[in-house]
Amino acid sequence: MDYLQYFDIFDEIDREEPPRKRKFYKKRFDPFTLEEKDFRMKYRFSKVYMRKIVKLVQRDIELQASGGGLSVELQVCTALRTWARQEVQDDAADIHGLSQQSITNICRRVALALASKAAQFIRMPSTLEEQEQVVSGFRNICGFKQVIGAIDCTHIKIKKVGGDSAQYYINRKGFSSLNVQVVCDAQLKIRDIVAHWRGSTHDARIFRESQIRQRFENGEFHGRLLGDSGYGLTNYLFTPVQNPRTAKEKSYNKSHILTRNTIERCFGVWKQRFRCLLLGFSVSLENVKLYIVALAILHNIAIEMNEGIDFLEPVISEDNGDQQVLREGLDSRSGQETRRLFIETQF
């Protein structure tokens, strides 16, 4: 019966725990060891203001107590470098000593923390004093009165969407995108944003079904928006005069263009700071929508903190052009009359 001893040996082997695989962590790069100039080039913020952003989101970002937990500082710097430099996640991962999946998780975690602060950083002026400050900012450009915001849409490129709805994401330029509506002020701060419409959706429809339009309908603001000819003319949204004939109409159009140009500049600066907005996203559609809002918040924070952008490479402004629409029935009669009186009295 000696052969039975082998079963005892096998039992002992089964009871032995396999040797634990030793964990190896990549050496992580500390961004704050960079010189100030290099730091700003890579992260679009100075060290002082980056630390303020860290402080803003630190309570919302969960720190791991063991297993190589990441500091809030490293997570914020990693996410901003990924968004600002438009590096593929593999490159950003190598720089910070993190896996590609870690980069994905970090970006989403930081974006969620920022997006939770949207009401604090993306908002229309509410009090009369705040509204007058915004109106004054636009008036100082070239004398156009009673303007509280410039509105337009910009396409953010996304990866091809599958399924039956794929065709609706393809815009008039032939690529898949989200059509993002933004209202900005004269300081280029984003005051309102809608970031969920598919690329084929017309600007006018996005505005027509937006909450900001309803707020203007309800009379919440003592001012009006300026938009291009793709929008319908109303009492609270002025568009250019089609085929201007009089000197006053031509003067109005010139002033309208110069004042409304703030939204084009806003898009340019926003995309200049965060190259992912200019070149597009390769992440999931859910994350794209989240990132757009987060980057709008970071843009506003940069303006509030007087973060300059002189050190950035120039970005060619996208040539959206006015979308071709049938204007018959698009402009309201009351809007036409309000604009006519405005032109006669102000120009």
TrEMBL record:
Domain DDE Tnp4: 151-300
Recorded GO MF terms: hydrolase activity; metal ion binding; nuclease activity
Source organism per UniProt: Parnassius mnemosyne
Protein's name in the database: Putative nuclease HARBI1
Entry cofactors: a divalent metal cation
Function statement: Transposase-derived protein that may have nuclease activity. Does not have transposase activity.
Keywords: Cytoplasm, Hydrolase, Metal-binding, Nuclease, Nucleus
Subcellular location: Cytoplasm; Nucleus
Protein family: Belongs to the HARBI1 family.
Domain of life assignment: Eukaryota
One Gene Ontology cellular component annotation held by this UniProt entry: cytoplasm
